[in-house]
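@here heads up, posting the sequence + SMILES for the fe (ii) ion run so it's all in one place. Ping me if the SMILES looks off, I pulled it from an old spreadsheet.
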Amino acid sequence: MVKYEHEIGITKGTPVENYVAGNFEGETNEVGIYLAEVFKRLAWEEAEHAARFCEMNGIIKPTLKENIEWMMGGEKMANAEKREASEKAAEAGIETAADFFRESSKDEGRHYKILEGILERYF
Ligand SMILES: [Fe+2]
Ligand SMILES: [Fe+2]
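bot reply: prediction finished. Complex C-alpha cells:
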C-alpha cells in the first residue's frame, strides 16, 4: 500500500463535474486534430490533459481488472462497427475510407486480443 496516489473521481458529483467532462471531450478531440495537423508533441500533451480529466471525473474504473474488461467491450464493439463502416464506405464508393475502416477494425481486434491476454494471464 502506498500513501500518496492520484484519486479517481474527485470531481464526480461536484459543481466541477461538467467542466471536467467538457474538457475531457475537448482534449480528446484535440489529440486527433493535432495528430492530423502533424503536431505530435501537442497531441501528446492534450492526451495527458485528457487522462487527468478522465481520472478526476472517475470515468475509469477503480481496478485494473475492471478497466481491462470495460475496454475489451469497447474494442470488441469498435472491431465490429469499423468493419460495418468499411462495408458502407465500399458501397458508397469511398475506397480510402473503406480501406481505413477495414484496417483499423483489425487494429481494434488486436487491442482486444492484447487485453484478453493480460486478463487471462493475470486474473
Ligand atoms: Fe489541453
Ligand atoms: Fe482500440
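MO: The pocket of fe (ii) ion (ligand 2) is lined by residues 75, 78, 108, 111 (CB under 6 Å).
MO: One more: Helices lie at 17-36, 40-56, 64-91, 95-122.
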